[in-house]
Structure formats: C-alpha cells, structure tokens
Amino acid sequence: MGYYSPKSGDIKYRDLNGDGKIDGADQTFLGNPGIPQIVYGFGISTTYKNFDLSGFFQGQAKVSFMSDAARTAPFIKSPDSYFTGNTQLLKAYADDHWSEDNQNLYALYPRLGPDGAVIENNRQSSSWWLRDGSFLRLKSIEFGYSLPTQWTKALNVKKARIYFNGLNLLTWSPFKLWDPEQGGNAFAYPVQKVFNVGLNVNL
Fold first, then answer.
1. Distance CA 125, CA 77 (A)
2. Ramachandran area for residue 9 (φ above 0: left; ψ -120 to 50: alpha; else beta)
3. What is the helix (H) or strand (E) element at residue 196, kind and residue range?
4. Could you say which DSSP state residue 9 is in?
5. Within a domain: 116
6. pLDDT by residue (tens digit) across 148-191?
7. Chain-centre distance of CA 83, in angstroms?
8. Taking the CB of residue 135, how many other CB atoms lie within 10 A of it?
9. Which domain holds residue 86?
10. How many domains does the chain have?
11. Is residue 1 part of a domain?
C-alpha cells in the first residue's frame, strides 16, 4: 500500500509493527480461511395421509471473505489515470457512505471519490471489509398431494400427484448485503431461485 496520510472519511490502519509508518509490513492474519472449514447438509421427509413434504438444507461455517471494494465501488483510478472497476454502485453504499453531509465514522462505505490515492487507501483488505461467510440455505423443498383412489378411478388413471417444488428459496446468514456464497464480489451472477408446479400421472 505504501505510506498514506488518511483524510476525514478514509479508513485508518494500525501500525502493528510500531515502525511509525503504515505499509505492507503491518499486514496480519484476519478471520477464518476463505475456504469453509465446515460444509454440511441435511434433509427431511414426511407424509401425512395424501400429503408429502421433503426438503434439503445446505450450509457452511467457519469461513470468511473480504468484501472486495474494487468490485463494489463505482470507479477505481489506476496509476495511469484511467478508470477501471464497476460502473454499478450498491444501493447500500450509496445510502450509507461517509460524506460532508454524513460524517458517520461507522458508515458502511468510507469516503467516495475518483481520487486514486483515496480509493487505493480504502480498498485494502482489512478488518473493515472482513465478512462472515457462513450460511444455511434451504436448497430444495417439495410439497405434494396424491389424489384419492376414488378420484383417480374416475379419471381412469392409476395414480396422480400434484406437486410444488423450489430451489434456493431461503438463506439464513449474518451477512445481509448479497448472497454470501458469492464471496467478495457483489456483482457476481447470483444463485437463482427456481419454482416449479407439476402433475405426475401414471396411466
């Protein structure tokens, strides 16, 4: 990173080695690894009369990621004075960033601006950007109803079942800004929710 004197609204770093300057020698280990140390899943299945319900849950724990400022900020100015990075800006950052009008030391995003030095200072991996990547997801669920025998006889079929199923319907996580499985890149293609309604018929 090199030595930089932060301004109001910038992230401040601790001089861990006590040499009187802030640089790469002040880096240290933070949080859990980026690869989950615990990956788990479990399912349920039950029936009641003509109804049936099944589901599968997927989760991970003891995992951290850095919210990548370079992939969630609107502009990054390179040393060659041209702009790179995303042209999008998260609404959460737009609504809660440090500014002259909002001098909140704990704003979600530090001072915004096209100044290359400022952006470079604020985009460093640090405890400010460290996030808990653990989650529990309802990966799949299916609810069905088998038509009574007298109905199937009237329809001249052996068996008929109406069902609804869905994928990735719910996620529980301490991290709320985007899907934690995307890691630090808020604009990665998200996990999709899928809904299906169908009818199984045995003639």
1. 17
2. left
3. strand 194-202
4. T
5. yes
6. 999 988 888 889 999 999 999 999 999 999 999 998 888 788 88
7. 26
8. 19
9. 69-126
10. 2
11. no
